[in-house]
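User: Could you check the structure of this?
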Amino acid sequence: MSSVSDLTASKAWFHKARLGAFIHWGLYALPGGMWEGTSVPYLAEWLQSARRIPNAEYSLLAERFNPQTFDADAIVKGFSDAGMRYLVFTAKHHEGFAMWRSRVSSFNSYDATPAHRDFVAEWSRACQKHGVKLGLYYSHCLDWHEADGGDPRPCENNFGMSWGNDWDFPDQQNKNFDRYFETKVLPQLTELLSNYGEVAVLWLDCPMTVVTPRHARCILDLVHILQPNCLVNSRLCMLETLGDYGSLGDNQLPAGTTADDFPREAIITLNDSWGYKSTDHNWKSPAQVRQITLDALQSGANLLVNFGPDGDGRLTPESWAILHDLMEWQDAVGEALHSGGQSPFPQDLGWARAVADDRRLWLFPGESAPDTAVLAGVEGELQSATGTHAARIGQDTWRLDGLQALAKTQSPLRLEFTEPPRYDACPRIQNGRMRLLPAQAKLIHGEPNALAMLTDAPLGAAGEKLVGNGHSVLADNGALCDWHNPAEHCVWHIRLESGRYRLRLVTRNGAHSQPWRGDRTVEVTIGDCRLTAEIVATERLDDSHYYRAAVTDLGEIPIVHGGEFDLTIRTIHIASPDAATMQLERLELQRS
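Assistant: Sure, the predicted structure tokens are below.
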């Protein structure tokens, strides 16, 4: 069994790794999201379920799978040069096809294909050569190739696709998940954890309700016996806290900061699909990937960037362009990226992303940053400033110049102090604005209300670990979700000078690929001042393909006498149960 010290050391490594590569590659790469002349409307790796393709027909893809141009060594070298410290490869996805020579099932890349290759072994050798740690993805619940694979129903929330194989095996009552678990999952995991050297991460997915805590503990026991240093992600079962670190939702970005004992990991696609999809050209730009990397970095979370090789095992030109950009960026970002630091501030600065460790503070100005900014709440003796001119203008306040030049290349300014600086724990106006995140607030709970029971709370393992639903909770991206109970509210203790302040609220739809909607009224109080407003879309944000967001201009609040205040926000009316999926992402104050 693994010891506490084994996992503590692994979490310390994981926390400093920060950037990793995700590889979605299987039989689904051959059709590339196309079947019988039409493109699947959603994810390419879900092709078999989306088109309800019988196993007898789908398995014929294996007879064509012979990726002659696949070169694990070249790809992993590219990852290493781009600052990626670990790789997670889909050893078995939901289609049930093993990308290694499995003795448990002949439906694998060695026995069922003309390639006769063990791709897990090839990734393992390349990772060892280039100093990249190997992680393995294994679909432990869904397996469309098996009669007893996980088949949770109903599936109306899965874009019309079945979770399990209900086209070849429609008789759900006679399915025996335990039989599948004992005869395929545990034996195949034993192979993966025994035959390929060190496995740093076991990445599990889609646990659904059929995977119980008992199944989860069986997997954990096996991992800790065979690979004591291996970390298991929180998609182990519905009780996410059984994992060693928290996996955010697909393409969700982190907020707030990460607890030292429970790291978080965000996962993003470079376009819309995880597996290769020939018709998906909605690529993120290199600048967007840099920005997302910095968002994860300042929150203390890891970022796992997904690549979907095609049927011949090649990365797309767009993927290589992003990799080459990350390679060029390493001189600027590498020191901060692998420092293990995160933002030391009790708020989002807005104009820059921040990372600190011990005596160093890095600030990455954003596109909207002014050329000169005022940084408040940092007290210490400055030893050196790189990339900017820094001048103290108060006991804990600094003027920083030359920011626009840094913003153009997303390079940091670096402040190093003679001793660890002291950071003000009270949020305050930073360069004219205050951005408050729910993960940095105190969440006050009340009794669950009836409306709360209409939604399924996505309990974030890195957020508040509440039992059951019916409460507002911190989602795994740091936002407040199931945000509808008037008895529950967020409270920040802030500092404001006298003046008038305009309030802006950013809310995001917590339901995957659904439209944003308001349908509620909120109340904000600052001290004795009170503001009530309807949630409407003053401005739409297009920063996510899957979770739509909007800005609401709430109005102004006057502060007659400056000082420290409790700022509270709560829902006082909700017009539609559908709006219960809304997430509170941040609240902004700007001096009028």
